[in-house]
Each structure stands twice: as C-alpha cells, then as structure tokens.
Amino acid sequence: MAGLVLAFFPGPAPASIDTYLDQALNATGLPGVSVVVTRGGEIVHATGAGHDAHGDAVTENTPMRVASVSKSFTAAAVMTLVEDGRVGLDDEVHDHLPQLPPRITVRRLLNQTSGISDASVDIGQLTGARTLAEYVDLLRPVDAAEPGTRFAYSNVNYNVAARLVEVVSGQPYEDYLRQNVFEPLGMHDSRAGGDAPNGFNSLCGIWLDRPELGDGPAVGGSGTVITTAHDMGRWLVAQNGHGPFATESLAAMHGPSDVHDYGMGWQPDNNGMLVHSGNLWTYNAIQAIDPESGHGYAVMTNGAGVVDDTGTILAGLIALSRGETPARPGSSRQLVEWVLAAIGLLAVALGVLGVVRARRWARRRSPRHPWLTVARLVVVALPAVLFVLYPQVVSFVSSGRTVLWAQLWYFALPVTVTLTAAALAGIAVLTARVVRLVSVR
C-alpha cells in the first residue's frame, strides 16, 4: 500500500524546487531561505537561496535556528527514554522534578495539557535562567490548572521536559539529544544551543542584521535547536516511519491528547498534514509531514518580520509535490511595513503641528465646557497609554502567550517603532497644550 501511495504522489523534480525557491525569495524579499522535500525514505531535494549575515550563500548545509520546531526533537528525546524503559509517559514528573506540582505526567507535559501556562509562571523571571536546572528552580510556585483538563501552549512545558531528560539520563540535554536523536539519524550538523549566524529583522523593507535575543536557557527544549535543510531531511524521513523510532512512539508523538489535537511537537492542519511552526526573534521555520503521501517538508528563513512567509513557501512545495502549479509567491510584509511607516510619519507630522498650534488651541478652549478640554487631552494621550500597555495587548492577542518588552523590538520592530513615534508625538502635544493652558490662566 505504501508503494502505491508513493507511486501516486511522485516527488517534485529538484530543478522545479530550485526555480520555485528563487521565485519565492524574490517575491518575499527574505534575506535567506533553505528548504527540503522528502518522499518515503529518501530526500528528494535540499537546497537554499539568498545569503546569511556573513554574506555567504545559504545552502542545504547552512545552520538555521528552527525555534519551536525544536519541541518535536525534545519529544523524540523523551520517547527514546520511554523506549528504553527509563521513564514512562504516565509517570508523574514530580517524582523526578519535585519543583513541579503532582499529577503532571510526562505525557501531559509533552501534550501541553500539564495545566502550566504562561500566566501560571513568571515568564520575565525565567528569562534570567541560563541553564535548565536554574530554569526549573525558578518555576516555584507554579499555579497550574488541573492537569489533563485543558490545552495551553507554553515553552515552559518543553523546557521542563528537557530538564527531565537531563535528570533521568544523567547527561546534559544537548549531549543526550546529540547521542540519541541526531547521531542515529545522521544529523551531524545539528545541535541544541550554540552559535549560528545572526538573523535579520525587517524595518521599512530593510533587513537589519541582528544577534539573537538571549531570553532564557542557552540550551533549552522549547526552541534552541540549530540544524540544516539536509539534516531536516533525515529527520522528516524518520518521522514518516523510515528511522529508528518505534511505531508506538511515532503514534504517541503524532496523535492528539484527550483534550486537544496537539500531539507532542506536532499538530494536524486542515489538509491532513502534521505540522509545527517556529517563530524566533530573527529566524522562522516550519515543518510538515503528509502521512498519506509520505512526503515531508521543512522551510527555514533567517529573517523574522511582522509577516511570516514560511507557510506560504511550504504551500508552494506541497503543490509541487502534488503535480500542481504553485500559486505565485508573494508577501504582504513590505506593504504592511510601508503602511506602518506612513502612519508613524503622519503621527510625527501631526505631533509637530499640534505643538505649534498649542497656544491657539489653549486660547480657543471653551471655559463653559471643561470636560471637552479634558476629553481632547485624553485623546492625544491615547497612543502613550497604548504604548505603556503594549506588551499586555500583544500577549492578549497572542492567545495568552506572554510577550516581553525586549522581544517586541525584534519580530514586531516596525509596529514598535510606529507606536513609539505616535506615543512621543502624543506626549509632546499633551505637554505643549497643558503648558499653554497654564500660561493662558
């Protein structure tokens, strides 16, 4: 049956992948992209386009940060311990890590149903930890919901899982991952933590070379894997059943929990694919496997902006694999950023005009309607109020994920700069009007 499925879904020609990737790079304006397509037990093609921060060409061997795609590797590391009988999926994590509350099992940790959410811990404090041991020690107290009753996506779960690997194995997480996941798969250019070329953030359509933000353990289970397109090909082949992982382990990693369709670093999309994306401060990535056709895909970029183009590029690769013509690649990133820049410039212009006209405004106020004067002062202060609440607002629209101030100067740089300009303009107008009101009296 598997042979018939693979015959029905012939892999795309490597040349067509190269051509599409060049088109996608030109359309999106990304600095660099690497991709891989697999089929059954083979790598169809791994390639790259663009450049890295050193000016070198991006190839299938260029190291890329894959952010939260790392979670599936952490799940795999835990599953090797399960296969060896050193820990059970239904064991309580508390038995190995007493800092964690009871009733959180290993399975619930990986399914993101542990009851831990960003709101239940101090995310800001956790950014100061440089090791997984420090990270877990900083967790207490954990105000977790009833384990196993609801899904809450949080990096905390997978950093705890990585620390569990250390405690059970007696090895540093990066060493265990290398010896028990990367090396058996032939992923010789992959590692957890370490250095990679700087990534990029976009502002007004210009890509800025920036170092990665250090906001947590240097080696963690939620987002510190650095790998290549070639190595990701070996990983995807194994995830499609052509590797050392037991069938039961793959079923556990890919299958849903009792309360959500998220598995263990994988989640089904609306097209029957299993996917997981990763959004870091200067890198983005996405991986996908198609259980029906046996295809696997990974897209990695060394640029992160207000628009993530990895999903669009993935859709084009899937279309190629199905013998379809991919939609013309494109991106709204540059348009969005120019609109934000225009809003910022308009805010500055209105701020200058408001300061210049502050004396006239104060003289024309209505003494009989002081509430109207107050209302107009409140209006010009609104951008500053929004600026103060900015991290909370972004965290709210991010489905409860905590976003900190430092992080907002990376992937959201255009929004942050625009809001800063509007807030400063509003404060300038507010100050000028209050000063003029006092002088008029």
Automatic annotation (TrEMBL):
Q: What keywords would UniProt list here?
A: Membrane, Transmembrane, Transmembrane helix
A single Pfam family, by name?
Beta-lactamase
Question: Domain Beta-lactamase-related: where?
Answer: 18-306
Residue intervals passing through the bilayer: 338-358, 370-390, 410-435
In terms of InterPro entries, this protein maps to: AmpC-like, Beta-lactam-related, Beta-lactam/transpept-like
Question: Could you identify this protein by its name?
Answer: CubicO group peptidase, beta-lactamase class C family
Taxonomic source organism? Lentzea jiangxiensis
